[in-house]
Amino acid sequence: MQPDDLLIVKDDMIAFIAGNGLRRLNAYVPEDVPSVMFEDDGPDSWKDFVEHAKATNVPFVTMSEVVLEKQDIETLIERTRVHRFPDEAGQELDDAQYLLKYVGKTGYLQLGFAYGGVMFLYETATEWYDRYQQWMEAVADLGSIVLDDSDDE
After folding, report:
1. pLDDT value at residue 153
2. What angle do CA 130, 132, 134 make, to 5 degrees?
3. Cα–Cα separations (whole angstroms), residue 151 to 86, 137, 146
4. Pairing with 84, which of 34, 104, 135, 138 sits 20 to 30 Å away (CA)?
5. CA-CA distances (angstroms) from residue 86 to 91, 103, 108, 123, 124?
6. Buried b (16+ CB within 10 A) or exposed e, 108-123
7. Given the DSSP bridges, would you call strands 60-67 and 106-115 parallel, antiparallel or unpaired?
8. How far apart are CA 64 and CA 66, in angstroms?
């Protein structure tokens, strides 16, 4: 079973990285960087990832986290309301209610190291963070729809 807060996992990662003689750089590796995603084979597969980084003799591992803030939810609600009809507000309020209990919790972690011109990445996320991401993507998709109000005559 996956935890609702990855803070303990993050603390374990920090200790394990240091214990393997690697430095940690707080940095997020975006999707547009050439990368290879490490397959998650279980709750401790991130340890294998760190050991692979050590085996390549890299000096550091990148680490990024996402902690849910109340402002993140408020911003998402506002963006949703801008792009939806008022009678569709019920679902977004249900989603917001669901996410409010996770405010202050760590929902996403990314580890990475560069080798051979490619970033090798390990990512893990909670179920609620995945739901939050889906909501953000849906709002972004709504924002990209352009309506043509011109009269076709």
Report:
1. 47
2. 70
3. 26, 31, 15
4. 104
5. 11, 26, 31, 36, 35
6. bbbbbbbeeeebbbbe
7. antiparallel
8. 7
Reported pTM: 0.85
Token pair listed for 66: 């996402």
Q: What is each CA distance from 88 to 30, 85, 91, in whole angstroms? A: 32, 6, 7
**3-state SS, residue 58:** coil
Residue 106: predicted pLDDT: 98
Distance CA 65, CA 26 (A): 9
Give residue 26's identity as a one-letter amino acid code.
Answer: N
Query: Nearest-CA neighbor of 112 among 7, 15, 30, 2?
Result: 30
Token output for 83: 């792009």
